[in-house]
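Design request, tokens follow.
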């Protein structure tokens, strides 16, 4: 999982009620690290960046949480998940 680097403290987060580009970029990077929740295995179904985590909300003991280890297998970005 990537390190969470906070935005620069001396920069505003909004100007005239609109998010600054720097703060918008930071919030989007945080959102991309959010846990993905779904039903069933993500392998072959869910595209994600390396390091993303997925929780199977219908999983049984031993098959609940996955992590995206490989960016793509045979060019398919939906593959590369491993059970953790």
């Amino acid at each position: 999982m990537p390190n969470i680097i906070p935005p620069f403290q001396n920069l505003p987060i909004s100007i005239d009620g609109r998010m600054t580009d720097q703060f918008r970029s930071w919030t989007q990077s945080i959102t991309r690290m959010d846990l993905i929740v779904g039903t069933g295995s993500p392998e072959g179904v869910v595209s994600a960046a390396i390091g993303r985590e997925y929780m199977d909300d219908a999983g049984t003991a031993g098959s609940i949480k996955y992590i995206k280890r490989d960016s793509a297998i045979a060019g398919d970005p939906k593959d590369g998940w491993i059970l953790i």
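Comment from the thread starter after seeing the answer: thanks! The longest helix spans residues 21-31.
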